[in-house]
Here is the input.
Amino acid sequence: MSSETATAPRIDFAELSGLELLRAAMTMEGRPRFIGDLLGMEIDLLEHGKVVFALETRADFANPLGTTHGGICATLLDSVMGCAVHTTLDAGVGYTTLELKVNYIRSVPTDGRRLTATGTTIHVGRTTATAEGRVVDDKNRLVAHATTTCVIFR
Here is the structure.
């Protein structure tokens, strides 16, 4: 091995703010897999207090009635709201979902429709945070909306 061989700098995630950590983790080569990979989530926006993820429905998302299972929207909403909270946290601070409330507005076919979820923080305190989320279809029609409470680990 040559002494001229460059090694990629290691990222110390404990030193990164929540927003920096998400941006680094979502774009790094060889990053650990997450639920979004399984569902085909795309990260459209990562800002302080706001996150947008999207996916396309597919046949294996079907519930017994043949439409997109509600768990797909619930997972999208939990992901964007939790990540919105995460973007506001200081380095070394963690969180987890404490409560999730989802309202379903309309069914969605499994035919490749693009669903876009937006999560925004409402309040971030010392021990808890709240956020809200919305999922819209490719015609910008509301599909589901939700709120969450997250517990913060300092």
In short: Strands lie at 42-47, 50-56, 94-104, 114-124, 128-136, 142-153. The two ends are 43 Å apart (CA to CA).
